[in-house]
Design a protein that fits this description.
The complex is a heterotrimer of chains A (437), B (234) and C (336). Chain A is mainly α. Chain A has helices at residues 3-24, 27-54, 61-76, 84-111, 116-147, 166-185, 190-210, 212-215, 231-235, 238-247, 251-283, 285-295, 297-302, 307-333, 344-357, 362-390, 399-407, 411-426. Chain A has 2 domains: 3-83 and 148-426, no CATH class; 84-147. Helices cover 76% and strands 0% of the residues of chain A. Chain C has one domain (2-325): Orthogonal Bundle (ABC transporter involved in vitamin B12 uptake, BtuC), CATH 1.10.3470. Chain C has 13 helices and 2 strands. The chains are: A mainly alpha (437), B alpha/beta (234), C mainly alpha (336). Chains in contact: A-C, B-C.
Chain lengths: 437, 234, 336
């Protein structure tokens, strides 16, 4: 099959599957899945531009997604009364002091020609003293801020701006950290880069989990503003009532479908914009050079291409897309829960989507995001069904049967592993392979 | 009768033939050298003879047996030893361990062979507990040859043994190679230093662009005007 | 007296836990380093292999306890460990045969193998949860303590107690034994030497008549053993939950990289560096100062460098620092 017909076939298949879920399970479920499919495929696009086009292994998906989520708080939440008065600025100053000490050390390494041992010693002393000065400055205000109504706020809050703004800001936040992370780690070879980015993303999550003054940590930030109307508002609208009558659907269900549909439309718009821009990028000379570097780093280097610079660019772009998707996800959830960021669900699942969809093909990434998310959600009921099918002849009192049924949900991890392994073995290029240009 | 002979071999990488219809051979207990300019296909031919490269045409016979399709490991068992040009030692293993690796296929003669190699290269005995990676270039080469000898091969194949070794050490190395042959082990080597190699060789093969150009005894080749002018620098 | 109290405090809160956790990390890191040096890829599934080993020990312990076979005052897990090891090794070998072998034959890039190992990680993680469920499993039986805090106080008359849990003692002793055995094997036996040779220079090892499949088999046997023992010890010491083992992968990688990937000695050193850094950086030094300084000099606050919440993050921090400053690690390892 050619790529075009593969794309047609798979996209139609996916649409039919989602429609079937709508008809047989419920439209609410179908739309919930659809929305997360959209977000997953945006994240997948971000990783695909890095891995598929430049061969960069970024295992920091989780961290960038969480930073996008953080943008929601910073942009859309109201500022906490008094939090800034008791020392919000001092925290910022403290962080700046620490940052400056690090920047100084970096400059020292880049510019000065002292011998290495002295450099290490000075920069170590600088960073350590920078750290302790920061602690001295911030410890007290942090305690004060976290003491302000800890059950409700206890954090700085945000700027009370429209939540939609947090999407681009989430992307920017991720881009900025990708710049730093990239500067640090892009010199590393693939395996090390994977481990380093995974480690850094864990550090980001730990930071968000424990710095209550910023993100309320494990207490979560709930009630993020929405870019779409609330169900309650809809239920009192005239036209909603009419449609509900016409379709013979309960008003509660219809209102939640409308909310989800509005999200779907927003997400679709973002997905199409991202896809459009990425397709342009991939087809441009910039994209060609990226693939040239991926395929033969040595000769690209010999031709005088600045590989590090290119890799940094693509690392920032991809991570920004992940951050954007992360921000959208938090908006959809309506809450920011640092504990929910798990490498299995974010980093590794997204990677399965990239590999299964087809590394280096944007349309493949999208279908990968859709298919894998769909299976991720549906394999729980599927597993249960499967186990109950094979155990129909065993009596219900049987311990093994009840044990199997109890743990059937965990089949989904096995299932995901198998999908990835089977793809790598029998279709290493994925469902929709890269187009040779 | 050759101990090892490649008869009309053609081989190369992918679709490109580097060596075409080449004949190379070595007699029992004698030394053969394959010489020629850069890119003549010397090392390629050598690899093909040892089975590291598939042969497209022709056959390889060792000790009267057709071994054209035998994998390299099996050839070691048959009595062939191979010293690659680069990466020819185990750097993080000690000198003694490097040598012992050679005896793993046949433990019986371990001590006897160790003694033989240490006699041949006394310096290795002094450094036997040192990591091989810490040795100098010449010493590493001795470890590499020693390791191949430990399998008690009938034939030792050396790919550019003098590469990266200083001239003085090189002389010593060629003396040792001669000694090895005198003890009854045939030697087939590929050499960049054609003059010195041919000096100790019983048989020389001059290759150019993957084809046999001259085949004669080492001394006759050294005396051959054409060979001297084209390949030995006058 | 104050001095002794201070020392006891350090021993109790830093030395003993550090040695225990360090041993567990070291055993894990050894597994990763050995796979890397022989098969040339970073095995992300190693945490799940450890979990699989621990699960075997748990199931067998339950079986043995129900049969009345125990080893009081030691935990039953000690008796079943050899059987659990055999199961874990078999699993590793089966996985290799059906999955990794294919990519080895193809000479795939290490990053492909890494992604394959993530597939294996998912699969194994699911399998484990399917068999024992995701919940907490306690399988420690026998005497809890070798030395109780109160006993120590009674004997010495100090204010500070020193506790040594049975699991800590077992962890340290078993790890030492296993490491000695491993190094003896690698350095003194023919098979061990050929394994090192293979990891050093694969091509030459083949030319020397070393059987690659045998080396790979031995590698998985060692890895399976290390994983099973490390996983069981960790589970015994901290209670077993399938979920935690996924999060153990990164500290273990940190240990292996800090020590120098591909270097067994490095893996052990790395394990202890990580474990002790975590404890030293998150330890509240207030009490120490209380013993060592005149009372009016003791500063306020807990005197922690970093809050305990960041304990595991420290291993990642060290990892990142090492990658920045010296990617080859303390002992020169191979650069991945």
């Amino acid at each position: 099959m050619t790529n075009a017909s593969r794309i047609k076939f798979l996209y139609i298949l996916m649409t039919i599957t989602l429609l079937l879920v709508g008809f047989f399970q419920s439209w609410n479920v179908a739309l919930t899945i659809f929305n997360l499919c959209l977000i997953s495929s945006i994240m997948t696009l971000g990783i695909n531009i890095q891995w598929g086009n430049a061969g960069i292994v970024n295992f920091g998906v989780m961290g960038f997604a969480a930073l996008g989520g953080l943008a929601n708080i910073i942009i859309s939440m109201p500022p906490t009364q008094n939090a800034w008065k008791v020392g919000g600025e001092i925290i910022i100053i403290g962080l700046l002091v620490f940052t400056l000490s690090i920047i100084f050390s970096i400059l020292l390494f880049k510019k000065s020609n002292l011998n290495n041992k002295i450099k290490y010693l000075i920069s170590f002393a600088f960073i350590i003293s920078g750290y302790f000065i920061m602690r001295l400055l911030v410890d007290a205000p942090i305690e004060k801020i976290e003491a302000i109504e800890p059950a409700k706020t206890g954090y700085l809050g945000g700027f009370n701006l429209p939540v939609l703004l947090s999407w681009p800001v989430g992307g920017l936040l991720a881009a900025f950290s990708a710049f730093i992370i990239g500067k640090i780690s892009l010199g590393l070879r693939s395996d090390y880069l994977a481990i380093a980015t995974l480690g850094i993303s864990e550090i980001i999550i730990y930071f968000l989990k424990n710095e209550d003054w910023l993100s309320r940590g494990v207490k979560n930030v709930n009630g993020l503003p929405r870019p779409v109307p609330y169900e309650i508002e809809l239920q009192s609208k005239e036209w909603v009532l009419k449609v509900s009558d016409y379709l013979d659907t309960p008003i509660t269900e219809l209102s939640s479908i409308i909310v989800k549909l509005s999200y779907s439309m927003l997400f679709c718009v973002v997905l199409l914009i991202v896809l459009f821009l990425l397709e342009i990028a991939v087809k441009s000379p910039w994209g060609r050079m990226m693939r040239a570097i991926r395929d033969n780093e040595v000769s690209a280097n010999a031709m005088g291409k600045n590989i590090k610079q290119r890799h940094l660019q693509v690392f920032i772009i991809g991570s920004a897309i992940v951050g954007l998707a992360g921000a959208m996800l938090t908006t959809l959830d309506g809450q920011f829960t640092p504990v929910s960021y798990q490498p299995l669900r974010y980093t590794f699942l997204i990677w399965i989507m990239v590999i299964v969809g087809g590394s280096g093909n944007n349309f493949g990434s999208i279908i990968g995001g859709f298919l894998i998310w769909f299976f991720w959600v549906q394999s729980e009921p599927l597993g249960l069904w499967f186990i109950s099918q094979i155990t129909t002849h065993i009596s219900d009192a049987n311990i093994i049967k009840s044990h199997l049924l109890e743990n059937a949900a965990h089949i989904r991890l096995m299932f995901m592993g198998m999908i990835l392994l089977i793809t790598l073995r029998f279709a290493p290029k994925g469902l929709i392979p890269e187009v040779k240009r | 009768m050759y101990l090892l002979s490649g008869e009309n071999i053609t081989c190369g990488y992918g679709a490109i033939d580097i060596v075409t219809n080449c004949n190379i051979g070595v007699y029992k207990g004698k030394i053969s050298s394959v010489v020629g300019p850069n890119g003549a296909g010397k090392s390629t031919a050598m690899k093909a003879l040892f089975g590291l490269l598939p042969i497209k045409n022709g056959k390889v016979v060792f000790d009267g047996e057709d071994i054209t399709n035998l994998p390299p490991q099996q050839r070691v068992l048959k009595g062939m030893g191979f010293v690659p040009q680069t990466n020819n030692i185990f750097p993080s293993l000690t000198v003694q361990e490097n040598l012992e690796i050679g005896t793993f296929i046949d433990q019986n003669n371990k001590n006897e062979m160790l003694e033989y190699v240490y006699d041949l290269f006394p310096i290795l005995k002094d450094k036997k507990n040192q990591d091989a990676g810490e040795l100098s270039g010449g010493q590493r080469q001795q470890v590499a040859v020693g390791r191949a000898l430990m399998t008690k091969p009938k034939l030792l194949m050396l790919d550019e043994p003098s590469a990266g070794v200083s001239p003085i050490i090189m002389d010593g190395l060629f003396t040792k190679i001669k000694e090895i042959a005198n003890q009854g082990t045939a030697v087939l080597m590929v050499e960049q230093n054609a003059k010195q190699a041919l000096k100790i060789s019983d048989l020389g093969f001059v290759l150019s662009q993957g084809k046999n150009l001259f085949t004669d005894s080492g001394n006759s080749l050294l005396a051959n005007k054409e060979v001297r002018q084209a390949f030995l620098g006058g | 007296m104050d001095f002794l109290n201070g020392i006891t405090l350090i021993a109790n809160y830093i030395v003993i836990p550090g040695l225990t956790y360090g041993s567990q990390l070291a055993l894990g890191a050894l597994g990763i380093t050995i796979i890397y040096s022989v098969l040339r890829f970073s095995n992300f599934a190693h945490g799940e292999f450890m979990s699989f080993g621990a699960m075997n020990s748990i199931l067998l312990s339950w079986l043995f306890i129900s049969l009345g076979v125990t080893l009081h005052p030691l935990p039953t897990a000690i008796i079943v460990l050899p059987i659990a090891i055999v199961f874990t090794i078999s699993y590793c070998i089966i996985i290799d045969k059906f999955i990794f072998k294919f990519y080895r034959k193809q000479n795939s890039k290490s990053v492909i193998n890494l992604i394959v190992s993530i597939g294996v990680m998912f699969f194994t993680g699911g399998l484990i949860r399917f068999i024992v469920g995701p919940g907490d499993k306690n399988f420690f039986d026998g005497e809890r303590f070798i030395l109780k805090a109160r006993t120590f106080k009674n004997i010495t008359g100090l204010n500070e107690g020193l506790t040594l849990k049975t699991t800590q003692g077992i962890t340290i002793i078993l790890s030492v034994l296993l490491v000695i055995l491993l190094f003896w094997f690698l350095n003194k036996t023919k098979t061990g030497k050929s394994m090192r040779a293979y990891s050093d220079n694969k091509e030459l090892a083949l030319l020397s008549g070393i059987n690659p499949e045998k080396v790979v088999l031995i590698t998985w046997i060692i890895t399976g053993t290390l994983a099973c023992v490390a996983g069981t010890l960790y589970g015994l010491d901290k209670s077993y939950k399938p979920f935690t083992y996924l999060h153990l992968v990164l500290p273990i990688f940190s240990a292996a990289i800090v020590g120098g990937v591909g270097n067994p000695v490095g893996a052990i050193i790395g394990g202890f560096v990580i474990a002790f850094s975590e404890l030293i950086i998150t330890f509240a030094y207030k009490k120490i100062f209380f013993y060592f300084l005149p009372s009016n000099f003791v500063p306020e606050g807990l005197l922690q460098i970093l809050s305990t919440d960041y304990k595991i993050a420290i291993s990642f921090l060290i990892l990142v620092l090492v990658l920045l400053i010296k990617p080859t690690g303390i002992y020169k390892g191979k650069i991945i």
